[in-house]
Amino acid sequence: MQHLSKAKQRAQFKYQGVFGTIATITRQEGAKSLYNGLVPGLQRQMCFCAVRIGCYDTVSQIYTEKAKRNGYHGPAIFIKIAAGITTGALAVTCAQPTDVVKVRMQAQVNVGAVGAIRYNGALDAYRSIAKFEGVAGLWKGIMPNISRNAIVNASELVAYGMIKERILRSGYMRDLFPLHVVSAFGAGFVTTCVASPVDVVKTRYMNSKSGQYKSAIDCAMKMFKEGGPVAFYKGFTPNFIRLGAWNIVMFVTFEQLKRVAVMATRQVQ
Question: Which three-class secondary structure state does DSSP give residue 109?
């Protein structure tokens, strides 16, 4: 009876802020639970980033050349946005199974907390989902995920490029490490503002029980009825911290690797 009483208390607990959530999860489930879904998360990034970033410049160049042939003389930003949406959509189509597993493993709790472990590792999660929900279960929520990641990709890459270009033109910074950090941080904020609504709906829909929502649109409508517009920005602060940190690491690393590749190419030539 005492165990059930404690379980009910944990089930009814509401997280308070970013640090309060971290403290509560650590206290109830252990520090290890903060890294739930790490393996599929790494798998997702390797697959996802290889396509969305690796193909962006090529797709952007193809779109630019095609636009010129068709007599387009409008702002170049629209071509960049189109390229970002395209590569983002292609990338998530390839990486969707890893994203589904990541979300499921992040949502499960460790032994001792309310609920039970559903998956014993990433491979078990892939097998279980395919077995009980069919192979299509690994692509559950692909449409809202395509929408989310196409928006995120376009926001990140275009915002980073524009912020970096504006600062370079102003002469305040040179094309070095500090500029890359500032541009990446700004891109993270823009991306969080633009993508949070789609991100919240995607996560809720992908982690829902079978039959709970008819579609992603149905999920969004029910969320709006329950919490209004604010419901779509739930978790904005931790999401911004995550995207801000991610953008800084990604773009700074990307710039350094690009510089090394250019230097290596020059030496070969």
Answer: coil
Residue with tokens 């504006």: 166
Q: Is the pTM of this model over 0.85?
A: no
Residue position matching structure tokens 């014993």:
120
Question: Per residue in 191-204, is it b (16+ CB within 10 Å) or e — as a string?
Answer: bbebbbbbbbbbbb
pLDDT tens sequence across 10-57: 444 556 666 777 787 778 777 777 777 788 888 888 888 889 998 999
Residue written as tokens 């390839």? 94
* Contact in structure between 246 and 181 (CB atoms under 8 Å): no
Round to whole Å and give the CA distance between 246 and 99: 16
Helices and strands of the chain, counted as H and E runs:
10, 0
| Burial call 239-257: b when 16+ CB within 10 Å, e when fewer | bbeebbeebbebbeeebee
**Residues in the chain, overall count:** 269
